[in-house]
Structure formats: C-alpha cells, structure tokens
Write a structure and sequence with these properties.
The chain is of the alpha/beta class. The chain has 44 helices and 33 strands. The longest helix is centred in the middle third of the chain and has 31 residues.
Length: about 1250
C-alpha cells in the first residue's frame, strides 16, 4: 500500500463539521477537563508475569511477551477495564485506550504485527465499555481518546552514526501502520484521536496524514488532540524542534487541543506549555509525569504535589485539559480533578499571527507585515549551481551539504532544494539530501523549499521534513483538475505552496495575464481546496532581460507591476521569484549579474515582493553598487535605453578600495610597575598594559599567581577608579575607558590562570579557587525591547567595582533570564527597558520569580521605568527586594547594600517602608484626582472655527517619499547635545547646564569637552567611512477628524461619510480636571485636523527615520574590549536619529509640505519647539499608545521602504530610530493626555476593535484606576 502517491484519494473539500468536536468545545469553554493517568504505572502494580501476558491464546508464541502492555487488552481485559474504571471514578473525563504501541511497526518487536487492527479495536471497546458504565453510574458523560503513540522508529533521525541519511522506516510505511491503527480505534468506539508523546514531528505528520485520509474516505470526522514531548530543559523535541516550531508544523491538522506530555514534570514543563499556548488558537492539553524520575527510574512526586503544580497552571490560565503521564495513578488524577474543578479554563486567542505566513524547520519562521525581504537560498539546485550538481552527480552528498550550510550562514532564511536532472533518480536524490539536512541542526533550523517540476520529487521531499515547508511549485498548466489535486495533496502535507503564473495557454509574460492567472488560482485554492491565503505564494515569473530581443525588454517591468497588483488585490498572498533568471544573458559576468539583482530587488521589494530565490550572501547593497553600473542596470530593468545591453557588456571597471590608519602616541613611562598600572587605569591608557602586566607576572616573589596581579595592582587601581567615580571626581566616560584597560589586562592573564588551574586540579587535595568578585550581577533588556545603552553603562560601572557582570543582551525572554540567573548563580538580576510595553514584561518576570520561589534581588532600570511604577506595579508581585535604580552611579551603592550580609535586612525593611508610602500616596492621588466624563471632555475639546482660520496648506505631494542614503553631514547642526551628555551622566550646574555652556562648568566641563571631542572624531570617522547610514521616509495624506479619530484617505478629494478611509489613527483625550476658570481645552490630537463634516480639506503627515549600522560597529568595539567606543557609537546614533527627525521636520515645514515656507529659526529654537506644527510620536504623552505604530507601518509600508522594523513590543529597529505624525495647524501643540478613566479605555477598545484587557496592558502607565482591582 502506498497511499501518499494515490492522488485520487484527495478531495478538494475545505473541511467538514464534527458534532462531537462542537460538543467538546462547549465543555472546554466552561471548565477544565481531566485526562486519565499512566497506564503502564498501573499495570506494573499488578506484577504480571510472562504467562499473564501470554494468556491462553499466545501460550505457544515464539517470542517473549512480558512488557507488551497493549496485548493485555486481549489476554487480561479485566485488568485493563479495572484500570480504566479506577481513573474514571477518580474524576477523569477522558480515558486513553491501551494502544500506545499498537501499530504494526511497534508490535513487530513481539512478532504480533498481524494483530494491530484487532489490538486497537479490542482496546477501544474496553475503554468504551468502562466509560459508558461509569457515565451511567455517575450521570456524567465520559469520553474515550484513542491513543496513537510515536512508534519505536523515527523519520528524522538515522539509526546509524555512520549513515546520517539512513532511515529504518519510510513515511508511506508509517502512514499505512497508522491508518490500520486508527481504523481499529474508530471501529472500537473512540471519540477522540490523541496523537501523543511526539518526539519526532515527521512521525506525527504521517499519523495526521493517515487520519485525514480516513476521514475523507470512509469515517465520520472526530476531534484530534496533538501532544508533543519536550525531552529536557532545552525546550526541544528529541528530533530537535522547538515547541513553537512543532505547533507550526502540525497546525494544518486543526486539532481541537495542542499540548505536551511525558519526559518532564509539571514544574519543568511550564515555560514550554506557556510557549505552546502563545502559539496556537487551539485549546491546550498538559499531562506531565509525576516529576522527574529518580535514580531507579521510578517517580516519587506525590499526588498533592502534582495537583498543586497543575493548579498553578490552571489559575494562571494556561490549560484546558490536564492529566498525568508516567508515574501518575488514580490518586494523582483524583487530586488533580479536585484541584482544578473551580478554576476557569484558558481562553484561546481568536487569532494568532493572523496576517503571517508561518513556516518552520527546527525553529519557527514567521513572515508578517513587517518582515524584511526573505532570502531563499538558491545554491542547492542541480540546475542552478554547477558545483552542487557536480557533487550530487558524483554521489558526494556530504560535501554538497556544506553548500547548504554556507547558504544558511550567509543569510538564507529558507533553503531551496532542487534535484531536477535527467541523469538523477529525482525522488531518491531528494530523499537522501533532505535526510542529510535533518542530521545538521545548523541547516535544519530553517524551513525548506522543495523545488521540482516533477510532483513525485516534491512528495519525496515532503515525506522527509518534520517542519512546515514551501512547495515550489504547482500551476494551472495541466488544467484545473490536476491543479486542485496537487494543491489538496500539498495541503495534506501541511506545506505552503508557490503557484507559477502558467495556465493551459502557457507562461504569462505581460502583467495583465500574470495577474489574471494568479487571481484564478487564488480563488480555486481558497474556495475549493480551503487553503489559508497566507500559505499561498505567487511567482509571476521573473524572465530574462537583455537578450537582444525587443519582446523581452519589458519583462522586469511586467513582473514588478504584476507584483504590486497581486499584493493589492489578493489578500494574504505573498510574491516570490527566481532571481537568477533575470540576468541569465550575462552568464559568467558575476559582478554585472549581482548588480542587476540588487537593483531589481530594490524596486520589486518596494512594490511588494516578499521573498525570492537568491544566492544568499552575494546580493550587493543598492547604495554600494557603483553609480555608473547602477544606472546601466536600471536602464535595462526599466527599459529606458535601447542600447542598455550593449553598454553593460562593455562595462569593465575595477573597484578601488582605500583606508585610513589611526596613529596613537603616549609620552609617559616612569615610576614603579604598580604606579604605572594605576595610572593607566585612571587615565584609560591601554597601550602598555600588557607589557606592565607581564612585568608583574615575572616578579614571582610579589605575585606568585596570575590571580595575585588581578587582586593586587589591578583591583587596587580599579578601587581608586570606583572611589573617584562614587565621589563625583571621575566621570562615566573615564570609568568606561578604565574598564577597557582592565579587560585587556585580565584577558592577557586568563590563559596563565587556566594553565595554573589545570595544574592545581591535577594535584591531590587541590581546592577550588575563591571567587574574587563581590558578587554576580545578571543584566538583560527584556523581551520585545532593543535599547541597551543604559544597561551597558551599568554593566561597565559594576564591572569596574569588582562585580562579575553577565549581560544577556536585548530582547531576552523571561525563561531565559531566570534560567541563566540560576546557571550563573546570580546574586542580583537587573532588568532594563525603554518602551512602555517593557514594563509589563518586567511585571511578568517578577511574578515568575515569585512563583518559582526565587529570592534573588531584582533591579529595575531604563528610561520608561520609575520609582512609582516599580513600587506600585512590580514590587508587590515579588516578596524579595525590588529596587528602582535611577542611573549607573546609583547601581554600585544599591548592589553593595543588597549584598552586605550585615546590613541588607535593614536596607530591605527601609525599602519596603519607602515603597509602601509611595504606593499609598499613589492610590490616594487616584482617589483625590477628579475626572471629566468622556462626553464632558469632548464638549470641552479645542473647537476651531475652520471656515474662518487660514485654509490648510496642501503638501507638495501625496503618498510617500523615501530617503535611501541620507546625507548625515547635513544633520550635524541639528544635533541636540544635552541628552548626549546625560548618557554619560555629565550634568553641569546652573548657569552651565546646557550645551555648550557645560564646557564652562568647573566640575564636569573639562571631561565634557574631552568626551565631546572624542564624539566628534568618532562621528566624522563613521560618517566618512559609511559605517553609519541614514534611511527613512516621509508621507502625506488627505485626512479629516471624526470625533477622537483621524481618517486617512487615498485620493485628494473631499470625502464624505460614505467614503471608506484607508487607515484610521485613534486619539486619546485629556480627562483629568484642570484648575482655573474652565476655559482650557481638553485636548486630543484629532482636534488639530479639520472635521469630516467641516467642508475644509486637511492633511496629516507621517515620518520614520533610522540610523543603521550602529549595532554592528558597537559590537566590533565590544569584541575589541572597547566599551567606551561601543557605548559612544550607540549614543551618537541616537543623537543622529533625533537630528534626522528634527532636520526632516524643518524640510517638511519649509518645503515638502510648505505650510511655513518663510521660517528662519536657529537650532536652539528648534529644540525649544518654537515652530508651527508638531510631530508627536506613538507611545509618548500626546498619544501614549504604541499600537498606533502598526497603523503607521501599514499605511506607509515603513518596513518595506525604509528597513525600519517593529519588535513584538513595538520597539523600533534599529534602536536609533524615530517616527511620528505631522500636524500643521497653528494651534497644534504638544500636550500630555495624562490619566484616563475606564470609560475612555472601553470606548478606545471599541474604536480599535481590541479587548479592554489588551488596551489596559498597552496604556497601563496612564490608567486613572487600578486595572487589577
């Protein structure tokens, strides 16, 4: 039987309803259901012997049967029935059949493969009888879940170390075995099919494939549950997938429940169950082991402990079905049932990643509205790479694998595999290579694109892949029937699909036919096959240009035009293409081909091309292409020059490269070596430090060990640095230079220390070294946030004060923070964040630390944090110290106090009293604060007489204008230097507070001047070398206000209420009662735009600007041990981004919009906002909601056009980026919305079509009430 190759088995139905699923869904929405516990655990308690397993029927069987628990359904049915009944009476709503190993594959070990169907039917009938008997006895309906185990073989892992491509079973064999098992379960009366203990997702895909076939052919559809197994704390299955990738790979099955079981206890399973829940709209099932096994393989966790752990899951809204796996008994299930019976079930999200194409290898890959262009690596193609073809044809698959690895290392996010060669056995070659990829985690982590014109080869590839692949491709070339059958087959495998712009008449070459074919295919896929539009990728055919044939000259233009139309008219669909076809006429001229590809992609991406099959790593940056070559390529692409091909052929220029050398000199060298080291540390001079340290190392009488040098002169010098910094006599930039010297010295000593340690360990009685540090501090910028300048500075300062600092970087999830803190035995954890969503993540971390019973003190820092928020929102979630740290200078004092054994209890008590007072004051202020109702606030809005004020000026253009490589030198005069000095904690005293007055300050002036001079040198160097690049865009649209909203329109016509806006910006209105006569308006940004019914045409603008390259430069300095320059790069990039926004706003006012054409202001006037109009940013006081950025990004295609992205918490990437809206009205002013009432939150949630809870989460800092009350 080879069911997967018989395409007529497939129907094009989009799906069908299941009454039993509707019934279970209703129950799961009402309460948490309970699954039974371990079958094997209970069978062991019966102490059955070989003769018991054999029974009468198998008395003479030729192989031992003891341990084959499934056979007991035939030989000892009363034992199995009793176990089922015990679990049901203990409170189980669902019992599993005794069929974990009842496939012919698993039963072959006992020589009983012929009994597979009978075993499953008999087991299902036993469970059915027990469930029905207890239902009659108790009056409560019970359900039977047919257990479909993983078998004892795997599709993703080789049984031979020497042969990584070898497999001991095929996909088809597994489908056949699972089909037989499921038929027996359904015929025996199973209500549910539970595909469980999945250690290899490919095996589970075979089970799902078999189940789908049976439902389509002959069986009424039943609910499907899917449960994977995370094997350890790495968060991966045995075959290497993460939990999130596992969900993506199997979501095409549309299971009623997704979850985890086995391998781990509840405590260890929790972060992975949370991850599953955040990745699926299905209900969540969780049935862990009774803890981890003991030394003898048994389980010691008591029913009370297991129940308590699962109750926490339930209380925290993580689960819908709970039960037990290995080591659990009816006593465990009884305790679990009691523990969760009053808990509300998890409420699954209606949509997750709604507008995303979800793919997976070992890890998930999500392609969403803000994902950059996706590189599909092209070199694993026998038709496209001579090297790859030569290796494959020679049978050298292992070396060919290195090409795949290189593609991934060079940036391929998806890997295209093509084996279409006449002399190759395509299916066998595809199978072997995909199996080899599965053995290489560095390659297998990315999704595969299975590429062939032979559908049998495509199926061969799909049968080897546990992740969610892309199929490349199908088309209408052979007609609708063939197209629908192949599409349905792809859907059964759970893959996304590329559809070529071919039909019965042939390949589409002009844009109209491309779009017509793609539209027809889209409608067939969505309406007849039931394809998710997000899983559809169109390839409108990139055809060769520059051939010398006139009819080919517009091929590139047609592709780009078709792409734009497809993205506009076919919602959810993506566009891809094979890039190498474009330049096929120029084979052998790689420089020209790469330039053509770079230029073509630049324009195609702007019009909506999402991905392409490219040579990852060989794509030039558009701005880096030689200007003459770029002009020639663009003339060819856009068909602007009839001689473009000839001109390209004679183009032959070499690129000239140059560089600059930096010379450093020093003139001090006197005194003892100790004095020299102290001086070097104080002055940040690193030139001679290695020589000085080596001199110390040779003086064995004074420094017998390398550690003695660190603890002696180096630490003495750093202690002086720390004391001077603490006393305000040394400044942050100097401290960071000192740290650079210290790092260099320690790095030199480390090899000697390692050698010494090895020698000591070799001696008997050697002891571990005493830790020379004051303590270990773990720092992290929380999940969703990319800003880390402040955190980096804190790390350097703490390091200079003899703390070991573990910096986890940016966007660090909670479970990683806590796991690493335990691994490194951190004494203190420090969390950092800049944007308001980070505050919620900090609260989550504190709650998790409390839940896990941790006692590590928690530091809170970052621009968006405050002492009040820490006291009110974070500290109450954690019973151990939570301290808000204002800046780096305070971090040393706080850490020292927290780690001072003698005084820390007193410090903590004082802290609790202080924070309790702050909380009380906060809640008292909420009671005292008076609010207007929303209707009253709207009545007191800023009401303008729009017919008497000057008519709003029309911008010079509508739509967007992109700035690809902005002249950064033009921004220098617009830099506001005050925040720069704030970063370095250099603050002058009145009258020398501002820039440039700070240079006159007696205390900090000299150091401020030195830092400023360093900044100028580095800034000029980065700009001249092209290390930093400015990119951004500006856009203008017709706009009218509608209450507190601003409607955006596509055309420059006077809209009316029947005209649908293309976007809506939502505003928030001031509500806190104002003092005085009551004439002051209660503002909302919509007040500054003419109302829809006013008859006055108005406009709004939008901008997003970013400075790229800072992260890479900063990392280079970091790797060189140069913290000072590393931080300086980021501080300067931030200043340039703000200057970019300021300079662009000036151009907008004077030219691009032109409403203030005669403006003549100095930079200082700009910084004091002495101009007409405003540019408020989402997430800031005038509009505190960060989610408004998503509307901005969609409207202006910000990511696609500028490369500026958004994290899941809506922080901008790169970190040095600024965005906002433009308002031109003379009355427009910056204001703070301030606190708002629940009435406005509910109104805002309705207008934005969001839940109140989600709005409260985003607007937490401005809520005028306690959302948790």
């Amino acid at each position: 039987m080879a069911p997967t190759n018989v395409t007529h088995h497939f129907s094009a139905r989009a799906g069908c309803t299941c009454p039993l699923e509707a019934e279970l869904r209703a129950v799961l929405q009402q309460r948490i259901m309970v699954l039974d516990g371990g079958m094997g655990t209970m069978i062991q308690q019966h102490r059955l012997e070989e003769e018991d397993f054999r029974g009468t029927e198998f008395k003479e069987h030729h192989l031992p049967l003891k341990g084959n628990n499934d056979i007991l359904s035939i030989t000892q049915p009363d034992v199995i029935y009793t176990i089922h009944k015990d679990y049901l009476l203990a409170g189980a709503d669902i019992i599993e059949t005794n069929t974990f190993s009842s496939t012919s594959v698993a039963q072959a070990d006992y020589g009983l493969q012929r009994l597979a169907y009978r075993l499953n039917r008999a087991s299902a009938e036993l469970a059915r009888r027990a469930a029905d008997d207890v239902a009659k006895q108790t009056g409560v309906k019970r359900y039977v879940a047919g257990a479909v185990g993983p078998t004892n073989k795997t599709l993703s892992v080789s049984p031979s170390v020497e042969r990584p491509d070898l497999r001991n079973i095929t996909f088809d064999e597994l489908v056949e075995a699972y089909s037989e098992q499921v038929q027996g379960l359904l015929d025996g009366g199973a209500d549910i099919l539970l595909v469980e203990t999945i250690f290899d997702t490919a095996n589970a895909k075979a089970a799902i494939f078999a189940i789908d076939l049976l439902f389509e052919k002959s069986y009424e559809r039943r609910p499907v549950f899917i449960s994977g197994t995370i094997v350890d704390r790495s968060g991966r299955t045995l075959s290497g997938q993460t939990g999130e990738a596992f969900v993506v790979s199997l979501s095409h099955a549309k299971p009623l429940c997704f979850g985890l079981n086995c391998a781990l206890g509840a405590t260890e399973m929790r972060p992975f169950i949370e991850a599953i829940g955040k990745s699926t709209t299905a209900f969540v099932i969780c049935y862990p082991n009774a803890g981890l096994p003991n030394a003898f393989g048994g389980y010691d966790e008591t029913p009370e402990v297991t129940a308590s752990n699962l109750k926490e899951f339930a209380v925290d809204g993580l689960v819908n079905v709970v039960g037990g796996c290995c080591g659990t008994t009816p006593a465990h299930i009884r305790a679990i049932s009691e523990a969760v019976k009053c808990c509300k079930p998890r409420l699954p999200a209606a949509h997750i990643y709604q507008d995303y194409l979800l793919l997976s290898g070992l890890e998930p890959f999500r392609i969403g509205p803000y994902t950059n262009f996706v590189n599909i690596g092209e070199r694993c193609n026998v038709a496209g790479s001579r090297k790859f073809a030569k290796l494959i044809m020679a049978g050298n698959y292992e070396e060919a694998l290195s090409i795949a690895k290189a593609q991934v290392e060079m940036g391929a996010q998806v890997l295209d595999i093509n084996m279409d060669e006449g002399m190759l056995e395509g299916p066998a070659a595809m199978t072997r290579f995909c199996n080899l990829i599965a053995s290489e985690p560095d390659i297998a982590r990315v999704p595969l694109c299975i590429d062939s014109s032979n559908f049998a080869v495509i199926e061969a590839g799909l049968k080897c892949c546990q992740g969610k692949c892309i199929v490349n491709s199908i088309s209408l070339k052979e007609g609708e029937e063939d197209f629908l059958l192949r599409a349905a087959t792809v859907k059964h495998y759970g893959a996304a699909v590329v559809v070529m712009a071919f039909d019965e008449e042939g390949q589409a070459t002009d844009s109209d036919r491309k779009v017509d074919i793609c539209t027809r295919a889209y409608k067939l896929l969505v309406s007849k096959v039931g394809f998710d539009p997000n899983d559809i990728i169109f390839d409108p055919n990139i055809l060769t240009i520059g051939t010398g044939m006139d009819e080919h000259n517009d091929y590139a233009v047609h592709f780009i035009r078709a792409t734009k139309l497809i993205k506009e008219t076919l919602p959810g669909a993506r566009v891809s293409g094979g890039l190498s076809n474009l330049s096929f006429s120029f084979r052998g001229m790689e420089a020209i081909r790469e330039a053509m590809h770079g230029a073509f992609l630049y324009h195609a991406i702007k019009d909506g091309m999402d991905m392409g099959i490219v040579n990852a790593g060989n794509l030039p940056v558009y701005d880096d292409i030689d200007k003459k070559l770029l002009m020639l390529c663009e003339n060819l692409i856009w068909n602007k020059d009839a001689d473009a091909t000839e001109k390209l052929l004679i183009y032959a220029q070499n690129n000239v490269k140059g560089g600059k050398k930096v010379i450093q000199t020093d003139e001090w060298r006197e005194g003892s070596v100790e004095e020299r080291l102290e001086y070097a540390l104080l002055k940040g001079i690193e030139k001679y430090v290695v020589g000085d340290v080596e001199e110390c190392r040779t003086r064995v009488d004074l420094y017998p060990r390398p550690l003695s040098i660190i603890e002696g002169p180096l630490m003495n010098g750093m202690k002086v640095v720390g004391d001077l910094f603490g006393a305000g006599k040394m400044f942050l930039p100097q401290v960071i230079k000192s740290a650079r010297v210290m790092k260099k010295a320690v790095s030199y000593l480390i090899p000697f220390m390692e050698k010494e340690r090895e020698e000591m360990m070799a001696l008997s009685g050697a002891t571990e070294e005493v830790d020379p540090y004051q303590g270990t501090i773990l720092l992290a910028t929380v999940k969703g946030d990319v800003h880390d300048i402040g955190k980096n500075i804190v790390g350097v300062v703490l390091g200079c004060n003899n703390f070991r600092v573990i910096d986890l970087g940016v966007m660090v999830p909670c479970d990683q923070i806590l796991r690493e803190s335990i691994k490194h035995k951190a004494d203190i954890i420090g969390l950092s964040g800049l944007i308001t969503p980070s505050l919620d993540e900090m609260i989550h971390v504190a709650k998790e630390m409390e839940r896990l019973g941790m006692t590590t003190p928690l530091l809170i820092g970052g621009a968006t944090t405050s002492k009040v928020h820490t006291a009110v929102k974070i500290a109450p979630r954690y019973s151990c110290p939570v301290v808000h740290v204002l800046d780096a200078s305070r971090s040393v004092v706080v850490c020292s106090q927290l780690l001072d054994e003698a005084g820390r209890e007193e410090y903590f008590e004082d802290l609790k009293e202080d924070y309790e007072e702050i909380r009380q004051e906060h809640y008292d202020s909420l009671k005292e604060r008076r609010f207007l109702s929303l209707s009253q606030a709207r009545e007191k809005a800023l009401h303008l007489d729009w017919l008497s004020v000057p008519t709003p000026v029309r911008p010079q253009f509508l739509g967007t204008r992109v700035f690809e490589c902005y002249d950064l030198n033009s921004l220098l005069d617009f830099i506001d230097w005050k925040p720069f000095f704030d970063v370095w904690q250099l603050r002058g005293k009145y009258p020398n507070r501002g820039f440039p007055k700070i240079f006159k300050d007696k205390a900090v002036g000299a150091e401020a001047q030195r830092v400023f001079d360093d900044a100028q040198r580095l800034l000029n160097r980065m700009i001249d070398s092209g290390g930093l690049k400015g990119r951004g865009l500006v856009g203008f649209w017709r706009a009218q206000s509608d209450g507190d909203d601003i409607n955006i329109y596509e055309d420059d016509v006077m809209p009316h209420r029947d005209v649908k806006p293309i976007a809506v910006f939502h505003g928030l209105r001031q509500q806190v009662e104002k003092e005085g006569s009551g004439t002051e308006p209660y503002l909302c940004v919509s007040d500054f735009v003419a109302p829809l019914d006013s008859g006055v045409a108005d406009y709004v603008g939008l901008f997003a600007v970013g400075v790229f390259g800072a992260e890479e430069l900063s990392q280079q300095f970091q790797e060189q041990g140069d913290d000072y320059s590393s931080i300086m790069v980021k501080a300067l990039a931030d200043r340039l981004a703000e200057a970019f926004a300021e300079e662009l706003h000036t151009r907008v006012r004077k030219d691009l919009w032109g409403y203030s054409a005669n403006e003549a202001l100095q930079a200082s006037d700009l910084h004091r906002v002495r101009y007409q109009g405003i540019r408020p940013a989402a997430g800031y006081p005038s509009q505190p909601d960060h989610t408004e950025k998503t509307t901005m990004w969609r409207l202006a295609a910000v990511l696609e056009k500028s490369g500026i992205g958004l994290t899941e918490s809506l922080a901008m990437t790169p970190a040095a980026a600024v965005s906002g809206l433009y308002f031109s009205n003379p009355q427009a002013s910056y204001f703070a919305v301030g606190k708002i009432t629940k009435e406005q939150v509910e109104d805002y949630a309705r207008r934005k079509d969001m839940s109140v809870e989600e709005v409260e989460r985003w607007l937490a800092p401005i809520l005028g009430y306690d959302a948790d009350a």
